[in-house]
Amino acid sequence: PEPAPIAPAPALGEPIATEAPPPRPRAPRYVAYENGRLLLRDPSGVLEVSPSALLQFDTYGFAGPGVIHYQRPDGTGLKSGVFARRARIELAGRVSGRWFFLLGLQSGGEGSSAVAPLNNFIGVDLAPMLKVQIGQFRVPFTMDNVSSIRFGEFLERSLTARILGAPLTRDLGVMAWGGTDRSALYWALGYFGGEGGNRRSTDNRGDVVGRVLFRPLWKRGGAIGQAHFGVSGRYGRRDRTYVTYDAPSMTTPGGYAFWGPTYGSGADATRVLPSSDQSAVAAEVFVPFCCLDFRGELVVVRDGRREVLNSSLQLPTTDVRWNNTERAGTLSGYSWYVQATWWPYGPTRAMGAPGNYQTPTEDHSRARALSVAVRYEQLRAKYDSTDRSSDDNGALIAGVRRGGLDAESTAIKVDAFQLAATYYSTRHIKIMAQWSMFMFPRDNQAGAPGSKPNNDLEKRADARTFHEISARVQLSF
């Protein structure tokens, strides 16, 4: 065989050709910023954590007939000002890639201004469509309640979700769920104590809560692939012997309580408590397009109530003889809203689609965006304090008389119109402005501030509307 040719020597100054070195393996990043989150990983890959925080500063102004004369029971009235709505710190993470957890504390928001546990749970991924978690978290009822307040187009959740659907927002319990914002099916089913956040069960009973949604166009991808419709349901019971806390009040985002669970004063004050069956169903729809989306929800509720004198709950005894029920009634009715959101600038739905526990899957951490949202909703409920205090013939049981709260009317009627603009400087900085108008028809237990000031001489029969002008600056990561 012929000898192999000898390569000519390179010319003077010409680089000598050599084989390229093999690529070095990329070192794992133990500190990373991914999709708007700071991630910390240990070298072994067993533990991954992500710290986060939320800080919201709000300002509210109030207007409407007679608002200037309204005073809250503590004498503060409806005064304009700036305050810290929420200050929250959280630590999320995974262990061995399969177990996940979230620890959180918050001051403000739902509850008092004191620092208290918020979302706290431990869970495990068992299959792509099956996860189980135990702890305290938002109950899976309505699209609005499941969606994070960090990413909402309005300062607070709708009246439909906050007042009738899931007034306690969070609860202690165990839940199985499955699905993502890219799957055709999303479902959740849980058992909860029914007492709300940070409160152990007082009556050894609980609530079964479930939600399921379908995305019929998920294979098409894009915005329309996120379209869904779904249903929710909850059922539970409260034992009159042990439940001695008030039923939830009904408030506007600015904190005005247009319906409260107490009336009267002193030892003779009457309190409205949860009692007997608690049930509700809900339906939801979400339809997004390129830069415009529509959503709506309907909630129908029937919750048992009872009324007791404040004096019977203040005695230092747990004897049921002192926990007398003056009358037993029902809060029933429905609420619904429709909402449209327009994104004239920046990526649409930069924080992800509403209605699931997942974090956004697209990286818009540096994107700037602007949204304009409008929402109309209507609440039509009925609180009848003697609804369950009648005999088979419909007459009141001997010794029972109607309560003062529904002496004139059992209806609770509210119409709300809200307009909000939201600007994201980045995913972490959010600036919002909002105008809300609440209308209270006649024949109503609920009312505008001007129709029920503490000073009876200042009451105005024409006070049927109430306005809140509000703004928020938010930092979140």
Describe this structure in words.
This protein has 477 residues and is mainly beta. Helix content is 3%, strand content 47%. The protein contains three helices and 22 strands. The strands form two sheets. The chain has a 16-stranded antiparallel beta barrel. It has a two-stranded antiparallel ribbon with strand order 13-14. The protein is globular. The relative contact order is 0.14. The mean pLDDT is 87.
Question: What's the SSE blueprint?
Answer:
Blueprint: E1 31-34, E2 37-41, E3 47-63, E4 81-95, E5 99-108, E6 115-117, E7 120-127, E8 130-138, H1 143-146, H2 159-165, E9 170-178, E10 185-192, E11 207-214, E12 228-238, E13 250-251, E14 257-259, E15 262-263, E16 270-288, E17 292-309, H3 310-314, E18 327-345, E19 369-384, E20 411-424, E21 429-439, E22 465-476
Antiparallel strand pairs: 1-2, 2-3, 3-4, 3-22, 4-5, 5-6, 5-7, 7-8, 8-9, 9-10, 10-11, 11-12, 12-16, 13-14, 15-16, 16-17, 17-18, 18-19, 19-20, 20-21, 21-22
Could you name the key traits of this structure?
single chain, 477 residues, 16-stranded antiparallel beta barrel, two-stranded antiparallel sheet
Question: Count of DSSP helices?
Answer: 3
**Average of per-residue pLDDT values:** 87
**Order of the strands making up the biggest sheet:** 3-4-5-7-8-9-10-11-12-16-17-18-19-20-21-22
Using the alpha-carbon principal axes, give the shape.
globular
Q: Describe the biggest sheet?
A: 16 strands, antiparallel, barrel
Helical content stands at: under 10%
Instruction: Give me the oligomer status.
Output: single chain
Low-confidence stretches: none
Find the count of extended strands (DSSP E, 2+ residues). Answer: 22
The Rg value, from CA coordinates, equals 28 Å
End-to-end distance: 71 Å
What string, H for helix and E for strand, traces the elements in order? EEEEEEEEHHEEEEEEEEEHEEEEE
